[in-house]
Amino acid sequence: MQPVENFAPRVLAWFDEHGRKSLPWQENKTPYRVWISEIMLQQTQVTTVIPYYHKFMTSFPTVEALADAEQDDVLAHWSGLGYYARARNMHKAAKMLVDEFDSEFPETVEGVCELPGIGRSTAAAILSISRGVQAAILDGNVKRVLARFHAVPTWPGEKKTENAMWDLADYYMPSERCGDYTQAMMDLGATLCTRSKPQCLICPLQSDCQARVTQDPTQFPIRKPKKAAKPEKSIQLLVLTNQQGQWLLEKRPSTGIWGGLWSLPELAPEESVVLHIEQRFATQVAVVTPLSSFRHTFSHYHLDISPSQIQIADTKLVMEGDKYQWFSQQDAMEQGLPAPVRSILANIN
Ligand code: SF4
């Protein structure tokens, strides 16, 4: 993979004409504001992120405000974005910045990488965009552009290939306009060299892009070698409803799936709902209404969910500590809920 000359100037010239310049995090580019946008944008489209970003910035305009917030409140602002470890790490990192770094981001990529949830590419994006530091990124978009431009013949997830791509990314990073270049590479990947429909005819890199001459640029980046199908798991989720119409939510443990979020009591697929509730909460079940089952897919397995709504006869449940809590329906929807739980509750009449 021999680097070519004149790469960054072409990308920057294209950016000046076609790049995105009015995204909310492109105003007042402080490290804090860029950081939040970068974390939100991981695995999530720009259009989805924008309303979340505005709301988050209104509630937590500074790193101190985020550090002071309750985790529940932070998770509630994240509810629907998924990958909740991102929000928990961000909250931890904010506390660390306030307690150990006097609320200032470190100066170097290595320093920023010490914060929870921030890897090399995100650290470089924060520092280059907010402070003009000459630090290259290698996020999914940039990997795609470089893998195509050089027709990289191996899967970029392999360490050796990844290291070679970091070398290319470093080589192409210019010494001036570092923030614009970072933004330009992200935009090029997101809007032109897209996953399924690269627009080579209007790309500033077309003249020497090696994937373009293969007639099928989408074969790059080379796919990950196939693994066995994802495992499948099944659970039942219970919407316990009392006579006031309140719902019972259960706080998840802080680690594992949906860590720290409010969820619904869960039981194994083969268990009897009535017996389970009578034994777990020492109460009588009045009516059980099965709700529509559906599949939720995580990155590493499929989860088949069978929800039921259970009307209970009295509200004096025996509950362990503050793990369970009754919420009015409106309050419940304002908590940090996993997306499938939110959709079950939203569909109850
Ligand atoms: S020429 Fe096509 S494949 Fe190559 S970088 Fe541009 S859009 Fe991507």
UniProtKB/TrEMBL annotation:
<keyword id="KW-0378">Hydrolase</keyword>
<dbReference type="InterPro" id="IPR029119">
    <property type="entry name" value="MutY_C"/>
</dbReference>
<dbReference type="GO" id="GO:0032357">
    <property type="term" value="F:oxidized purine DNA binding"/>
</dbReference>
<keyword id="KW-0411">Iron-sulfur</keyword>
<dbReference type="InterPro" id="IPR044298">
    <property type="entry name" value="MIG/MutY"/>
</dbReference>
<dbReference type="InterPro" id="IPR003265">
    <property type="entry name" value="HhH-GPD_domain"/>
</dbReference>
<dbReference type="InterPro" id="IPR015797">
    <property type="entry name" value="NUDIX_hydrolase-like_dom_sf"/>
</dbReference>
<dbReference type="Pfam" id="PF00730">
    <property type="entry name" value="HhH-GPD"/>
</dbReference>
<keyword id="KW-0408">Iron</keyword>
<dbReference type="InterPro" id="IPR000445">
    <property type="entry name" value="HhH_motif"/>
</dbReference>
<dbReference type="InterPro" id="IPR005760">
    <property type="entry name" value="A/G_AdeGlyc_MutY"/>
</dbReference>
<protein>
    <recommendedName>
        <fullName>Adenine DNA glycosylase</fullName>
        <ecNumber>3.2.2.31</ecNumber>
    </recommendedName>
</protein>
<dbReference type="Pfam" id="PF14815">
    <property type="entry name" value="NUDIX_4"/>
</dbReference>
<keyword id="KW-0326">Glycosidase</keyword>
<dbReference type="GO" id="GO:0000701">
    <property type="term" value="F:purine-specific mismatch base pair DNA N-glycosylase activity"/>
</dbReference>
<comment type="function">
    <text>Adenine glycosylase active on G-A mispairs. MutY also corrects error-prone DNA synthesis past GO lesions which are due to the oxidatively damaged form of guanine: 7,8-dihydro-8-oxoguanine (8-oxo-dGTP).</text>
</comment>
<dbReference type="InterPro" id="IPR011257">
    <property type="entry name" value="DNA_glycosylase"/>
</dbReference>
<dbReference type="GO" id="GO:0006298">
    <property type="term" value="P:mismatch repair"/>
</dbReference>
<dbReference type="GO" id="GO:0034039">
    <property type="term" value="F:8-oxo-7,8-dihydroguanine DNA N-glycosylase activity"/>
</dbReference>
<keyword id="KW-0234">DNA repair</keyword>
<dbReference type="GO" id="GO:0035485">
    <property type="term" value="F:adenine/guanine mispair binding"/>
</dbReference>
<keyword id="KW-0227">DNA damage</keyword>
<comment type="similarity">
    <text>Belongs to the Nth/MutY family.</text>
</comment>
<dbReference type="GO" id="GO:0046872">
    <property type="term" value="F:metal ion binding"/>
</dbReference>
<dbReference type="InterPro" id="IPR023170">
    <property type="entry name" value="HhH_base_excis_C"/>
</dbReference>
<keyword id="KW-0479">Metal-binding</keyword>
<dbReference type="GO" id="GO:0006284">
    <property type="term" value="P:base-excision repair"/>
</dbReference>
<dbReference type="Pfam" id="PF00633">
    <property type="entry name" value="HHH"/>
</dbReference>
<dbReference type="GO" id="GO:0051539">
    <property type="term" value="F:4 iron, 4 sulfur cluster binding"/>
</dbReference>
<feature type="domain" description="HhH-GPD">
    <location>
        <begin position="40"/>
        <end position="191"/>
    </location>
</feature>
<keyword id="KW-0004">4Fe-4S</keyword>
